[in-house]
Structures are given as structure tokens and as C-alpha cells.
Amino acid sequence: MADRKAESLHSSIGLLGISAGSLLLAAHFYSVPRAVPLIPSTALGVLLLILSSLLAYAGIRRSLRNASLFLSLCLTISVFWCGYGVVFILGGQGVLNDTGDFHNALVPGLVTFTLALLIIAVVGFLCREVILAMIASAVSLASAHEVAMHYSTAFGSSAVACNYMIVCLVGGYFALGRILYFLTKEKIALPGTDLAKKKTHEQIQSTSGSMNPFAVTGLILNMLSASVFGCRLLGVTGKLFIGQVPWLWAAGIYQIGICILSYRAMDVLMATFFGFTSVLKFAGGYCLLYPIWQLEEPSFPTPFLVVFSILFVVLALFLTLKSPVDGLYLLFYVAYCIALSCRPKGFFEGGPQGVDVAIFAASALMTLIHLYNVKASAKIPTGKGAVKALLARSSFLKLREGADLHAPYLGYSKYADAEVLGYACSVLASFAITMTGDPQAPLATVVIPWVVVAGGILKLLGGSVAFARGKTLESSAFILYAVMWIIWGLTRYGGLYGTTRSFHAAVGIIVFMLFNGFIVFCTLFLSIAWFFYSLTFLLITVSFLLDAIHALPAGYDIAATLIFGLVSFYCFLSALFNSIFEGSCLPMGRPIVQLSGAGGGMTKCLHLPARKASSVKRIADILKNGGTCGIPTDTVYVLVAACNRPDAVEKAHHSKRQAQDRPMSLWISSLKQLEPAKHLFSPLLWDFMEAAWPSPISLVVPRGEEMLLLQSSLESFGFETPTLSHVSLQHHLFRGDISGEIIVFGLMYIHKCRVTLPRAGEWVDFLGMKDSAKYVGTPQSIAIRIPDCSVTTHLIDLVGPIVVTSANPTGEADTTHHNQVYAKLGDKVDAVLCDGPSPENIASTVVDCTKIDSGNIGFFRVGIIPKSQVLQILEQVQKKHVFVPNSGICTTKGQEEHVNHSHAVRNGVGTAASEETVPGQSPSDGCENHTRL
Fold first, then answer.
1. pLDDT for res 912
2. Is 703 in a helix, a strand, or coil?
3. Angstrom distance (rounded) from CA 231 to CA 249
4. Measured between alpha carbons, how far is 807 from 656 in angstroms, rounded to an integer?
5. Which one of 65, 252, 362, 868 has the largest count of C-beta atoms within 10 Å of its C-beta?
6. Quick one: the chain helix, strand, coil %, rounded to 5?
7. What is the mean pLDDT of residues 454-467?
8. Closest CA relative to residue 710, chosen from 697, 695, 725, 700
């Protein structure tokens, strides 16, 4: 229900945003014939930027739950209005001087989104998403009419306004239907507005990582950047200038977002590809901005583009193994990089622009294939099955598949591994700085986009994803290197050196070298490849330092960058192989210095996300088979084992180095699990447990039945006292088999000589722990609890009662995150159920209930539940018990009639017991006598 409400609200936000933007554009185009527009261009551009961010939010939030056409529609219109709005702002600020500038600036984007939205409309109609298809087709027609309006005055602006009004009305109807559906709690749904349909099998697969729903938007962004340069070649636009930069940089920014979302969709290869293409988009925008400073066109570094084409070739080969069609599509970018390297003026030459036209057509076709395969039940074949069948015959190469495809280093992560992109960016940045550049015109050579975007921004992205996956050292290295590339790239190739550059730049670089030295030391404990990767980057920083103090030897920087680039390229290939194939075809190597102890081994236990029911079931199977696991609770993480597996209980005890003064406790999911031993608990204790649980309150209760030795009196009546329990005594007492005098004497003796004899009749024995029961609790008592956590109680329902101890070595702080469980006990447990940070950083409250029948409870530890709250619960429970006058026996209301009858059978028993056994005690103290007898 909550998920459907969230989807309803996000759909409403998205459709209302589309309607609002369409209304603004309709008002704008209706007022175009006027001398003064109704909405100023700057204001219209700002409003479109706000609405584009709103649409991006609505589409992404909705896509995290269900991959649908709504995602593609929202993100496509979002990037359309983002670039569109910036162009209007440039026009309002006088950057675009005449009608021709508006024509050249707007047409590439309008052409792209006319075709892209038409593809979305076609797929929408084929998949019976009628309203979304109508919106997409209406915006597509509006864009087509606007393109025609720029070429012929016969096409008036009223046609464009009418199309936007249609979008406004249809979108308003859709949003109204979703809001009504939400407010009426799903009772009223307007026709065509029900988006909460049951997911198909294909949609479920797409959310699990087999299909990437964000790839459609990434392909549309490739169409947009190709359209800017392709339109110039075909004569659609008259020139390349600053007015087209908004389309290129909007595509680049959104492409980085699609890269992140592709990692969220567990698609490493497409995420890396979108990261590469974002670099090209930013470089194209940089080239169009350069004429602001210099009249001539910038030149391109040949080595960088050659290396870029090699990276595209390698990525295309690996992507072919997943999808041959996608692999063939990447070859267009191989040709594009080669064309750019062959022409000194790059994007301004006819050769690269011709490849842009081919990329535009190929991207449109791939958009149709991906969008249809994500949405429709019948798929357009892409060759996946053929490659998979071919590799199945190979004994050397086997594709990675299954739930552990993107297993993070520590704990569960929502993102795939981004190390492939991080290493590739190191290769690109290192070969980019082989160009020395002209000190008089540092911006004339296109180096800043390669170094700042590839080496800086994308490496920051890789470091952030690595941190989310628990790779602290790798993420620290990526982030440090990214900062270094950004600062040095802007300083050296942006003309930011000053006359005092030597001292200040040198000091900063030395600080970076100290940080990198620490990373080099830490990589000794990581792997051989990472050690050489960080060590060779030290050569790069030395090159920067020598250049800053004007002492750089000839050829040193080229040699250093080549060495670092080759090491980075090996790491790139190794990460690709490890992400696609099982085994280690190109290993990263073992640690040079091997650590011992917890966390020092190479073996990592299984991690499973707690939000999935299948994960809880898998943890349950591990526990049933004798394993030990770390799980989240309502307080901190704990280490558990199944009670009915004595070997697992003993393993948990030894793996934690459990101290004798900190015994393990017992957890259950319901008191029904103790029903077979209910007669061994006093009524007051049982009611107190019912009232206190589920909660973070652990109750320390007597371990077994307390034997009452009536040797001097009861043996003479033929009772075998070693086998006589309080239940049998109570039975004989109520039958009248024992006289009052004997009870008086017995109680006087018991009052002085009560002892606890552990026997086979202990309630703990019902749990099947056998000899391992000695590790749980003390010989006299045991702590027991029902946790207030749905995941934990569901797990106990599947396994049965479990033995629990804190998930940390004895004497250390409690673990409040699954990463800490890995760090402390990762090589000693079989699995960890990962749920992120603990809801509380305080442990449970431990209450001593061994003397609860006398009205006294103690506190071994006051945790998250305060002492006053526990005492209040006890007071409420005690009020339910009735003290029978002149009897000294405390009973519940349901037992009062039966007790009075027993007193009538044997006159004087109640009085004698009251006077001789419990003198001076409160009524609640009499409960202890009742429960023992």
C-alpha cells in the first residue's frame, strides 16, 4: 500500500510538471506574434530549469520501484527543457543576438527530441500506455512544428501552442486521476490512469539488473550530442557556436547521472560506456566555448584519442559478450575517436561530423530496441542467447551470474562496482597530460576536459561508489587522485599559474605526496596491483612537483605518465575480467604483507540484504545447517546460532572468545515457543514476559525448576524427593494427600534449605541444546528476549529459538553497522544479514527476574529502556494477581475459586502456611510460595 501511494504521488508530480511546463510554452508561443512576449525569455528559461529538475526527480524516484515508460518520458522531457531553458536564458541576456542565432541554437535539440519522443510514443501505443504515448506524441509534434516554424513563416506559432495545450490537458487529466486514486485510497481510478498494475516477469527482471531501464535515456543523450555536429554537416544549422553548448553540457551532466543510475541498475559495462561518452560531450562544449577567448579553433592531442579508441574497443568486446548489438553500437564511438585523432581541429572537421550522423541514426535504433525490450513482453533479439550458449561450451571462460554477481567488499550495496571506470579514467588522464601545451595559449590544446572530467569528476564518482560498497582504501585513493587531477589540470592547462607559482604549488603537491605515501603503505595489505598503481602515481606527483619548480627533466613526465597509464590499463582489464567472468583471469594479486586475525584473511562470508525475504530465508537455511550469522536487531547487530544445533552454539561461543562472566542469551519470536515448558514458569513471571515483550528488554529467569528438599518429612510418606517437582507437590497438596502439619514443617525446612538442582526437567532442554547448553546463561539463570524487529522475529519463526551474543569480540564496543561485523568477525561467521546502520546505538536493558515472585527485580544493565518503564510494567502485571485473604497464596483471578475449594478440604492449611512461612512479607511475596509449591 505504501509503495503504491508513493508511486501515485511521484506519477502525479511528474505529470503535473509536464502540464505546467506545457502551459508555459503554450502561453509563450501564443504571444510570439506580439511585439513584447507575454513571458520574458529569461523568466521562461528559469521556470523550465526548475520544472526539468522536478521531472528528473519524479522519474528517478518512480524508476527505483518500477521500470516503466514513465521513466523515459520524464527524463527525456527533463533534459529537453533543461537545454531549452538555458537557450532562452542566453537569448534573454543578449548572448543570442538575432533570429539566426536562435535558429542555430534551438534546431539541433528540437530535431533530437522530435525523434526521441516519437519513439517513446510508438512504444507507448504498442504497450498500451495510451496517455503517456499521447503526451509524448503531442510534445514531439510541437517540437516538429517549431522546427518548421524556424524555416518557414507559413507555419505559425499557434500550431506549436495547440500541441502544448493538448499536453497540458492530457497531463492534467492523468495527474488528476492519480491524485484522486491516492485520496480515495484506490477506490476511484479514472480510465487510463492506473499505473499500479502488477509487474510483469520482464519488469521484475529489469529491476534485478538483467536489463537497464536507464540506458534508453543515455542513448537519447547520445543522439542529442551527435545532432549538434551532424546538423552542421547536413546544413541544417549554419554554424557551431556558444548557443549549442547548453545542449552538449546538459547531455553531459545528465549522462553522468545516467552513469550513476546504471551502477544502481547493476550494469557495469553500460555505466562505463556512459561515463566515456559524457567526457566527449563536455569536450565538445569546451570546443564551442573556446572562440570566446581565441578566434582560432582549438587543437586535439592525438595520443589521448588513440588511447580512448583502444578503451572503447576493449569495452565493446566485453559488451559483445553480454549483448552483441550493444557491442556493435560501441564500434561507432571507436570510429569517432579515430576520426577525431586524424583531424587536428576535431569536432569542427567534416570527418568526425559524418560519424556523428551515423551515431545519431544508430542511437535512435538502439533507443527503440532498448525501450521496447524493457517494456514489452516480446523481445527484439539482440543476440544475448547465442553468446551465452557459445560461452557455455568453454571451460576457460564462464560468465558471472546469480545473486553474487556484484558482491561488495563489505556488506550490501545498492551499486555495482565502479573500479572499471576509475582505472579507465586514470589511463585517460595520464595520456592527456603528455601534451605540454603552449604557455602563451594554454587553452588552445583540448586537455582540460580530458583531465578535469575524466581524471577528476568521473574518478570522484568511482570513489563515491567504491565507498558505498565498503572499499574504504580504494575510495580514498580514487578521491585523492581525482582532486589532484582537477587542481593540476586547471592550474597547468588553464593558465592559472602565477608569478609566485613555484612555492605555493610545490607546497600543495608535497602535501599530496605525503597523503599518497600513506596510501602506498596501506596498499601493501591490499594487493600487488594496487601497490604498483599507487606507487606509480607517486611518479606523477613527482612530475608535477618538478614542473612547479621549473626543474622538470626532458622526457620525464612522458615516461612517468606512460608507466602509470600502463599499470592503470592492466587494472582496467583485470577489473573488467573479474566483473564479467568467474575466476581470476587477470588477478590483482595477493597482499604483499598478509595480516593475521579478524579481517586479515582473504575469505569473506556471505552478505545478504535484509530488505529481501529471500535473504532472510537463506540465512535461516544457514542456521538450520549449523552455521552462525550476524543479523540486525532492534538495537545493535548480534551473532546468532540455532538452539537445536549444539555444534553451532559451541562455534558461536568460540568464534567470539566469549567471556565466562558474559554468557550468551536466548531469543524467541513468541511465547508459544515456550508453551511446552510453561508449567515450569511461575504465573507472575509468565505474565510479566507477556507484558514486557516484544521489546529491547532481556529478562534473566531461573534456568530450571527449583527442587524442594523435604527429606526429613516427605521421604517418610513414601515420596521420592529427588524426583518430586513443585508441580507434583502442588497436585498432592490440592488432593489433600499431605497433612497441614507436614506442610508446615516442610515449608519451615524449605525456607532455610531451598536449593536448585539442574535436571533433565529444565525448560532449556526443550530447545535441544544438549551439552552446548553450558555456554548459554549461567548454571542458575538465563537471559531471554523477544526482539522488537520484524526481520529478526521472522528469522526466528523460520529457525526456532536462537542463541544470541553481541557481534564483536569480548571487551570491544558493540557493532552498529554490518560493515563492523565484517571487520571484526568476517572470517569467523558464515553470513551477515545487512541492514545498514543500527536503529539504536544502545544495547537492551537486562532485568533480573530470578526473585520476581518475591516482588523484587534487579537490573544487570540499564539500556535503551529506562528502569522506570520496566517497573511500571511489573506494577501493572502485579495488579492482575489476587492475594487470597488468610491463605498466604497469590493467584490469578481464574484460579481463586479453585484455591478456596482446596482450603475447605484441609482446614488450617492456609492459616498455617501464612503464619509460619511468610511472616512479615507483602502479598506479592506469597506468590513465590505458590509458584514453588
1. 29
2. coil
3. 17
4. 8
5. 252
6. 65, 5, 30
7. 90
8. 725
Q: Looking at per-residue confidence, does 187 or 647 come out higher? A: 647
- pLDDT at residue 227 in the model: 95
Per-residue model confidence (pLDDT) at position 218? 94
pLDDT(893) > 50 = no
What's the whole-model pTM score?
0.75
pLDDT value for 183: 78
End-to-end CA distance of the chain: 52
Separation of alpha carbons 119 and 76, rounded Å? 11
In order of 542, 704, 789, 797, the CA distances from 672 in angstroms are: 70, 18, 17, 11
Looking at every residue in the chain, the average pLDDT score rounds to 78
Q: Which residues fall within 8 angstroms of residue 814, CB to CB, at 6 or more apart?
A: 636, 637, 806, 807, 808, 841, 843
Average pLDDT over residues 639-667: 80
Own/partner contacts of 24-27, CB < 8 Å, gap of 24 or more, are 24/48, 24/51, 25/142, 25/160, 25/161, 25/164, 26/161, 26/162, 26/164, 26/165, 26/168, 27/161
Instruction: List the one residue out of 21, 36, 30 whose CA is nearest residue 73.
Output: 21
d(CA 631, CA 789): 11
Query: Concatenated DSSP letters for 781-815?
Result: EEEEE--S-HHHHHHHHHH-SEEEEESS-TTSPPP
CA 596 to CA 663: how far, in whole Å?
A: 27
3-class secondary structure, 448: helix
| Dist CA 39 CA 656 (whole Å) | 70
| Buried residues in 130-167 as b, exposed as e (16+ CB within 10 A) | ebbbbbbbbbbbbbbbbbebbeeeebebebbbbbbbbb
More confident: 708 or 184: 184
Residue 173, amino acid: Y
Amino acid (one-letter) located at 466? A
Is pLDDT above 50 for 70? Answer: yes
- For residues 762, 765, 766 and 768, what is the CA-based torsion angle, rounded to 10 degrees? 170
7 grid coordinates: 508511486
CA angle 493/499/505 to nearest 5° reads 60
Distances (CA, A) of 894 to 307, 582, 882: 86, 66, 10
- Nine-digit cell string for 453: 572530467
**Distance in angstroms (rounded) separating the CA atoms of residues 337 and 283:** 12
**Which residue type is seen at 337?**
C
* H-helix or E-strand spanning residue 847: strand 845-848
Task: Name the β-bridge partners of 39.
Answer: none
Give the separation between CA 884 and CA 688, rounded to whole angstroms: 20
Question: What is the pLDDT at residue 406?
Answer: 60
pLDDT in tens, 231-264: 999 999 988 989 999 999 999 999 999 999 999 8
Residue 834, all three cell numbers = 545487512
Burial of residue 192, with CB atoms counted within 10 A of its CB: 0-12 exposed, 13-18 middle, 19 or more buried: middle
What is the Cα 890 distance to its own chain's centre? Answer: 55
Give the pLDDT mean for 486-508. 73
What is the structure's pLDDT at 479? 94
